[in-house]
Amino acid sequence: MLHLMLVDDEPMALDYLSDTLHEWDPYELTISKAYTGIQALEKMNGMRLDILLTDIRMPGMNGLELADRVREQWPRCKIIFLSGYSDFDYIQTAIRKGGTDYVLKTEGDELIFQAIDKAVEEIRMELHEGDISLKSRQMLQQALPTLRKDYLLDLLKGEGDSAAVRAKRFPELLIGLAPDQPVFLVVGRVDDWGNYVSMSDKSLILYSLQNIAEEFLGEKSRFMFVPYDKYRFVWLVQPQSHLQSQNPSQPQAQTQSQWQPQSQSQSQSKSQSQSQIQSQQQTQFQPYSLNSANKNAYKSSDELISQQASEKEIDASPIASDTSGKIVSSKETSSYSSDELINQQASEKEIDTSPIASDTSGNIVSSKETFLYTSDELISQQASEKKIDASPKALHTSSGTQAASPPTTLPYSDEEWERLAQFVRGTSESVQETCRKLLKLPISLILSSEHSSWEHAARQFDSLKLQLSSGLIRSKEMLVTESANRDQEEGRSSRTFTAESTFRNHIHKLDLLEPHLDNGETEPFVLLYDEYTQFDELALGETKITYLALEMFAHLSAFFLSYLNRRNLIADLGAKVQLDTFIHMDNHSSWQGALGYFRQLGETIAEHNGSLQQERTHEMIRRIHQYVQDCLCEELSLTRLAEVVHLSSPYLSRLYKQLTGSNLLDYITEVRINRAKHLLKSTQLKVHEIAAEVGFDSAPYFTRLFKKITNSTPLEYRELT
């Protein structure tokens, strides 16, 4: 609902215009009027202003000054200037003040209607296709890393989508993985934060860890880094794409360029690969550029990192070098010279490296823009297989531009998965070493024993997390591969795992019951409650069911107790809660009895809240009706009535119609006409006096409206009685 304010110092002209617009209004505008600029500002303080139609020449504050004041508070307000003077200077000044239109009073009502039409259309365009929509898209783009992270974590929690939905969501969220292919998982943790104490420092270092992992793994595989709590993370890895064109006649190279906009042509890639292999055959190591060719959109925003660096007075890059050539980590006092690092590396690996520093964008680089893998065996194997491609690959540009939808990928062979597993195992050691030397950060990693489909990724993820927290890798900087027969050792079948995962997901969703309780929606609450408290008893052993039931009881008890406390309902429902039954499982005859108790408690809360809402709603309607009856001769705008019941005027208008089936303004008009009928029958007041008594400023408008509703003028109605 849009708000229009009319301002003119000529009462008759203003009243006529107000009455005319009320009769014409196709937009259901909320129309207010003021006779001076000062009065307009006073009324504006209590309402949003969308359109201002104002006279220019007025005593005190003129229309141009009023427009300036309105723009300060409501910059999107459309301003229509109304004047009786066809003066070029006025028109020019009005347009400079941001006026949407300029209408002469002598030009008639039709041009005023057209000006209002134009203003309304401009507002709608801004809302749907203009600045607001653009800003929404920009905010969505900024939110993509978070949305991407949440979506992938949902998949890893077992809340997966179908293959068709994944095929749609992956390109939308710029997820650089194939939605129709399996995935290789690696779960890691930060063993010791050392001197990184504050959350901003940890976020910065975790970002640096992400950059390091992406630099090592990103060029030879499809790779995603997803942190899932304050110190643990997961890698999602797939072999490099070999895509099947959606168009049979389309060359392979063209399909690749669609899916990977930054990749070079196939011939260039082959040339680079051959050149790199020849270089590797002459040496015993593989050069690896750490100067990132692209920044994936799923990384944390540079603005955030820069802000954190500014607030904490630390270098925004993962590693900063001081003027003496020493390499220091963020907020870390310990340092070592580049020469010492060179000597250490030379003695340990018999290789030559250059001092490591960071560029201004936060990427880890060496002064010669090269870094050395530490796994000679892996490099030799890659060189012999001639699978190396040094060209940077990306699924989207660094600016976050939307990439083309991914074509269907050909299934990966067992040989490709085996090569990927070997590559990840060898490279993981390099990531650990780099984090230890450059970030002073020890990390532990556990690798999957095999790849898994997206449907079974949650089970794999759960297994890796359990083994990460087990005694196998209690020490720092451990690098292990999961036990291939872990589930068999624990006696967990796929169905058992699915049942437990569903149980845990339901526990985490108990908060979704709150809206139904708040709104008094008993039936939807029961349906959702029954869904969340179901067990797949056939998939779980008797002992497991017993302990899961205790866990569910504890969560239900905590949920309802927290709900009752936060909404101060203990006093109202205390007798129905039965505290002993509420807290102790032993006070229930069975698990089904406990579930029935909490279901009944939820129904009681929903019914109580529904009753309160109904009472509050009836009270609100009563207060509005009473105010209209008591203040009939005053201005009864939606804005004023909304203030009475502490709601916004658009919401009040919608709510009133929803509850009563009629418009609030129609109700006000009905009350005014009924009061006028009573006064016409019981008094000798003149028509214009009755019009003023029932809240109409204009007697002619009152007469027209009265005749429209009753099919007779006020005088004819009086004579009939």
Automatic annotation (TrEMBL):
- Keywords recorded for this protein, A-Z: DNA-binding, Phosphoprotein, Transcription, Transcription regulation
Give start-end positions of Polar residues composition bias: 300-309, 396-411
Q: Which residues carry this modification: 4-aspartylphosphate?
A: D55
**Ranges for domain Response regulatory:** 3-120
CDD domains per UniProt? REC_YesN-like
Q: Which PROSITE patterns match?
A: HTH_ARAC_FAMILY_1, HTH_ARAC_FAMILY_2, RESPONSE_REGULATORY
Region (Disordered) residue spans: 244-284, 300-341, 389-411
Q: Which residues form a coiled coil?
A: none
Residue ranges occupied by any HTH araC/xylS-type domain in the UniProt entry: 622-720
PANTHER family found in the cross-reference section: ARAC-FAMILY TRANSCRIPTIONAL REGULATOR, HTH-TYPE TRANSCRIPTIONAL ACTIVATOR RHAS
Q: What is this protein called?
A: Response regulator
Q: Which organism is it from?
A: Paenibacillus agricola
